[in-house]
Amino acid sequence: MFDVKKVRRTLIWSTPLFLGIAASCVLVTWYALIPAVQGVASLAPAVRIAPAAQLTPFTAFTCLMVIAMGAMRAIPTSDSRIKKFERFLTYTVLLNTLVLVLIPVTSVAQRFYMPSVGYSMCSELQGNPTMWFTDWVRDPAWCVKGKSLEWVNEQGR
Fold this sequence. Notes:
single chain; 3-stranded antiparallel sheet; 66% helix
């Protein structure tokens, strides 16, 4: 069904590509998603939320699944084993699609949830406003034009 030589040639360039995408997704998860969740959970003085960052762990997992599927096609294995991985890959792609569709919902939901836990939106901090993230501060007096998120967190301490 699949030409093994073509699959192997494709793996030469696709494996580093998907590993790079997965690594960048892990970095975004580590440096954007986790600190935002921890900040909201600990009621930090300021939090920067990137709604699209919620997609990155799922995208990283999908990239790793694609690499595994390519390797299974390059090393001909039984069709029953491949079918299981194909079904699992299909579920991960559907989950990715669902999370992608929920990004606008998350953006709207944070505008209702964050004020209820004591945060005010701040579009005056350094690097804001952008469509990629939203800054939230616990005290509106800390929303000073040109100051950084770290400065607000120092003021809160």
